[in-house]
Design goal:
By secondary structure, this protein is of the alpha+beta class. It folds into 2 domains: 34 residues, no CATH class; 156 residues, no CATH class. It is 30% helix and 22% strand. The protein has a 7-stranded mixed β-sheet with strand order 3-4-5-6-9-8-7, with helices on both faces. Strands 1-2 form a two-stranded antiparallel ribbon. It is globular. The two termini are 32 Å apart.
Length: 203
């Protein structure tokens, strides 16, 4: 059996220490986090691991639910404080958003997609917006890395407009959160995060 030897001294030290160096989008190496290490070693999609981890936390932590609901309400539309969450829920439209938040009457109030480095699918975002209730406030939420903030906002805005939705002027709620009114009674919210330690192949 032939053993593959890490190419650089840093990689060799990481291998000896029990880690596998992660490759950043810029081509550099970082040891990253324990979660990132395990996700890339034992799952075909680290993005799916991140989604399931977030869903697990949201359904077990009132503080996490409050924080998530606060972000989803950042564009100015109030959302129920008692949302419950489901991950990758498939419905009649056969799309599968990463996370959905439901009110106590089980109406969808939040449709969330974690869009790290994968491209948009044919269902994004129009099928997702169509899942939001017509008679209640609702939020379409995309979680993206800072490096894709401008380009993805532009592309999703074009798709929403082409689909007949009115997307109002963007509000910079704070540096990490953009938002805009979407049609009547809905909002489009765009929190960003630093994902530089995740390997690009997993996003």
């Amino acid at each position: 059996m032939r053993l593959l030897t890490p190419r650089s001294p840093e990689d060799r030290r990481a291998k000896i220490a029990g880690g596998v160096p992660a490759v950043t989008p810029q081509g550099g190496h970082t040891l990253g986090t324990l979660f990132g290490h395990l996700a890339t070693r034992f799952a075909p999609s680290a993005e799916n691991i991140a989604i399931e981890a977030l869903g697990f936390i949201l359904n077990r932590s009132p503080a996490a639910r409050r924080a998530f609901t606060s972000i989803a309400s950042a564009a100015g539309l109030p959302l129920p404080p008692d949302l419950v969450f489901a991950t990758q829920a498939v419905a009649e439209d056969v799309s599968r958003p990463d996370i959905e938040g439901y009110a106590s009457d089980l109406t969808r109030r939040v449709v969330c997609e974690c869009k790290f480095w994968a491209g948009l699918t044919i269902n994004q975002p129009l099928t997702y917006v169509a899942r939001l209730p017509a008679a209640e406030f609702g939020t379409l939420l995309f979680i993206v890395p800072a490096a894709r903030l401008t380009s993805l906002w532009s592309e999703l805005g074009k798709r929403l407009t082409a689909g007949g939705y009115t997307l109002n002027q963007r509000q910079v709620v704070q540096q990490e959160i953009w938002g805009a009114a979407l049609g009547t009674g809905h909002s489009f919210v765009w929190p960003v995060g630093d994902l530089s330690s995740l390997p690009s192949r997993s996003r």
